[in-house]
Every structure is written in C-alpha cells, then in structure tokens.
Design brief:
- It is built from 14 helices and 20 strands.
- By secondary structure, the chain is of the alpha/beta class.
- It has an eight-stranded mixed beta sheet with strand order 12-13-16-17-11-18-10-19. A six-stranded mixed beta sheet has the order 2-3-1-4-5-6, sandwiched between helices.
- Helix 8 packs antiparallel against helix 9.
- It is globular and about 70 Å long.
Length: about 500
C-alpha cells in the first residue's frame, strides 16, 4: 500500500498589510518528492510523525512524500504565490497516483488574497483529484479556524493537544497509525465538528494552565468511550478576519455519527458555560514593569502585541523604550532590523556606535529606539534545538545577527530575519546566558513558554498594542461570525453553534 504525504502550512494574519510571497516559502520550506523526507523526517514536526507512524505500522505501508511548504507567520499569501503553491502540490499528487491514502498537514489558519479559507480550498482540490474512495487523514494546528470545507474534504483531522506545541510528532504518528487501521479495514473514521460562538483569548490558550486544563480534561474523558478514535480542541486564531474565526471541536468516531455529534456538542456546551474564564485579563506595560521591580528574576516578559508566532513584525520597541526610560534591571530583547545589521557590518566587538533600531515595519509597535551602544558580537544567526519545541523545528537561521549593549546595560540582539522565540538556544548559541538577566523579553504569548519557563522564575504577559494585540476588542473585524463572545455577549448559543 502507498500513502502520499502533503503539507502546506501558514498562519496568516489579515491585520498585516504586507503579504506573504512565494519567495518566503523558498527561504523556509518548499520541498517536493524525496526532499520532503530528507529535510523533515528527523525533526519534531508532524510530517516526521507521518513517516514514523507508517514505518511502525504492523503491515507494510510505503510512505510517498510529495510536497511540503511552510514559512513564518505573516500577512495573507499573495494570490499568485498561493496559486503557484497549490499547482505545485497538485502536480506532485497527480504524478504519484494511484495512491491508497493521503496524509495531509494543513495549518488551519491559512488565508490567501483570493481564498479566505485557503486550507479548505487546497484540501477540496486534493479531494477532487483523488476521488471519494481514498481516505484522507490529517493534522491541524489548534490555532486553526476550522471550516466546513476542511471537514468535508477529509475523513479525519487531528489537532495537536499542547500549546506550546510539543506533541506535533506524536500527533503526526497517531494520524499515520489511524491511516494504517483504516486501510486495514479495522476502522471507518467518521468526523463530526462544532463551532460554538466563542473566541478564546490568545492569552488563555496555554494548555497546561487554566482554563484550558479543565477543558482538555473533559476532552480527555471522552477518549475512553467505545468507538471514539480521537477528539480535538481548536482554540482558534483571532488574527485571521475570516468567517470561521473562533473556537471549534472535532470528534472522530468509528462509524458513529450520532456519537460524534453528541460529543462535540458536549464540548461546545462546556466552553459556553465557562466562556468568561476564556476572556483575557490584561496587564499594561507599566503594571508589568512595576511587578518586575519586586519579583525574582529572571522574568520573561511576553510581548503579546508583537507576537512573531502570530505574524507580527518582530521589531516592536515599546518594551525597549519603557525599559530604557526607567530600567527595572538588566534586560534582554531581540529585534528584527536588517538595516541596522547592515549598518554595523564592518565594526568590531568593543566598538561603539549610535543606532536607530526597530519600529520600522509599521507605526503600530512603537517608534524606533535611538541610542549609543557597544558592539558585543557578530554571528551568522544559525542555531539548533534538540528538544521538542513549538513548531517542531530543529535547525533555525535568523540571518546575520549583531548583539549590542546600551548604556543602561540592556542587551539587544538584532537579526536579519524574523525568528519566533521558541528556543533558548537562540540566546545561548550566541553567548547570552539567561541567568545573567533580570528581564528576558520574548515576542510571543504561549509559544516561548516551553523554552523560557525552565530558566525563568516568573512569566508575565504584557498587553502591548499591535497586530497581535491580546485584546480582540481592538481589532477591526469585517468578516467574522456575529454574534461571537466576547465581542457580543447577549445571545442564544444554541442557535448560533455551527454543526458540520
């Protein structure tokens, strides 16, 4: 038996005016054929889990790698780029036919200029190519904004259960084993889904903390029921202004639609009953810095408004300005600014320079910071991560990197490429020791926690403004569901829950 493997992943922030281009994928992941296996099989990604699950299955199944594309979250994919990606994906798929099954890895929050539900579009095209008799089983990021087309195109979809995403490999392997059992005739996966009218605050999406901890407890209890093959919680991605934006639930049963519907409604009812717990409680910059003066360090300040994993610019300066204006202790921050890296090229460690850094991508994340700095070091920006971390990556490249220190002792790492802070190796590889600092700024909300919690005594989420603001009330939606809690709160949830 032959099972094809496809992946097209992008988390698209529609509040960013600059789009994601085809070249962005070329700089990150754009693999076909055996290059997919060569580049990904040894990572912690779900595609690596696909390979492992097929290899481990009790009957012989040949993995047929076809296509894998991914790049850092940013604005919607251009119409031209998305067309190129889909046509390349479909070309590889058609060349490989006939297949007995397909394992797919959409993200679930991909938006293109032409298709708001980009994941649903390419999955529909795939289903049209292979027909209705071939099982399609896939994975989803729990930040997916689940759509009807995603569900109808696949026999089963399974989301990661952890945020930060540490179980991507396991979920990919689980999907592959489900495929094996499907092809062997042991199970007939049937998928039910519900979209309750609740958008979960990004601040409340850490799965090892309340309120998610209790929600996942309810979900885990369902897994013990006969004929339940899997269930998934979609926490949603609030930075994609699409009709499906918000939470969703999936239950995959062994040929029992009614059971699946009952269980997704049980999860939906639980979320609605506890909806107020999933709304954010937000701390300002000043409130967080005041707490830093009394808390034990190192303290990780999570810059929620400049969340690189949510598509933001990575050059927000609001926390840098506040720290420099009244330093609460020795601090570290990373900023994306290829212009400043180029400016400093040619100097040497120990040299002094005046720089104007950050705040150059837009006017939403603070003004550029100007000041005198001392050069600490120049680096190629490449680092590795051996442990499972958010995104499943092992080899990273943030481009030529300069580390400088301000007169107040703040360390600024300046990169040539946007890099979300999922790994403490991003610091230690370049001779930055977390224990030397009172404050470590990480531009994220939940993704950095797995890396930073082991080296920090405290974690504070900062309600900074920006394209990834944690306060959804500050985002100007035009296409979302209405009503949707917490943006509306006086309506009947039973009449507004979508069933798929």
């Amino acid at each position: 038996m032959r099972v094809g493997i496809l992946a097209l992943l992008h988390e698209s922030n529609t509040f960013i005016s600059e789009p994601t281009t085809f070249e962005a994928f070329e700089r990150d992941w754009l693999f076909t054929g055996e290059q997919v296996r060569k580049q990904i099989a040894d990572t912690h990604h779900e595609v690596a889990g696909f390979f492992k699950g097929l290899e481990d299955y009790e009957q012989a199944i040949t993995a047929v790698p076809l296509f894998a594309a991914r790049t850092t979250p940013y604005g919607p994919i251009t119409e031209e780029a998305f067309s190129q990606l889909v046509e390349l994906l479909l070309t590889e798929l058609k060349k490989a036919m006939p297949l007995d099954g397909l394992l797919v890895a959409p993200h679930g929050a991909t938006v293109s200029e032409a298709f708001p539900d980009a994941d649903g579009y390419w999955l529909t095209r795939v289903r049209e190519v292979v027909g209705n008799d071939i099982p399609i089983i896939g994975t989803l990021d729990p930040h997916a904004n689940l759509s009807t087309d995603m569900v109808k195109s696949c026999n089963a979809l399974i989301a990661y259960r952890s945020n930060p995403h540490l179980d991507q490999f396991k979920v990919g392997r689980d999907a592959a084993l489900m495929m094996g059992n499907t092809l062997a005739g042991k199970i007939t996966p049937m998928m039910s889904a519900a979209l309750p009218p609740v958008a979960i605050s990004i601040q409340k999406q850490e799965t090892t903390a309340e309120p998610c901890l209790s929600l996942y407890k309810v979900a885990n209890e369902q897994l013990s029921q006969p004929n339940v093959l899997s269930n998934s919680v979609m926490l949603g991605f609030p930075y994609a202004d699409v009709e499906e934006m918000g939470s969703a639930f999936i239950v995959v049963t062994n040929n029992d639609d009614q059971l699946g519907e009952d269980l997704v409604l049980e999860l939906s009812d639980y979320l609605w009953e506890h909806r107020e717990k999933f709304d954010g409680d937000l701390l300002s910059i000043n409130e967080c810095l005041e707490q830093c003066r009394t808390l034990d360090g190192p303290i990780c300040l999570l810059d929620m408004g400049d969340n690189v994993g949510g598509g933001s610019t990575a050059d927000g300066t609001l926390l840098l300005h506040a720290i420099e204006d009244d330093p609460p202790g020795k601090s570290f921050i990373c900023l994306y600014d290829p212009e400043t890296v180029e400016q400093l090229n040619g100097l040497s460690p120990g040299d002094s320079a005046k720089i104007t850094v950050g705040g150059k991508t837009d006017d939403l994340h603070g003004e550029p910071w100007t000041g005198d700095v001392k050069i600490i070091g120049f680096y190629d920006g490449k680092f590795t991560e051996s442990k499972p971390r958010h995104g499943g990556m092992t080899n990273c490249d943030q481009g030529p990197t300069v580390v400088v220190e301000t007169d107040h002792g703040t360390t600024i790492m300046i990169t040539s490429r946007r890099q979300f802070p999922f790994s403490i190796s991003q610091l230690t590889t370049f001779d930055i020791q977390p224990s030397d600092y009172h404050i470590l700024v990480a531009k994220g909300v939940n993704a950095p926690i797995a890396a930073y919690q082991p080296v920090c005594n405290n974690m504070l989420r900062v309600n900074t403004p920006g394209v990834t603001t944690a306060d959804m009330r500050h985002l100007h939606y035009e296409n979302r569901r209405d009503p949707l809690y917490p943006l509306e709160d006086d309506f009947d949830p039973q009449r507004t829950t979508w069933l798929v």
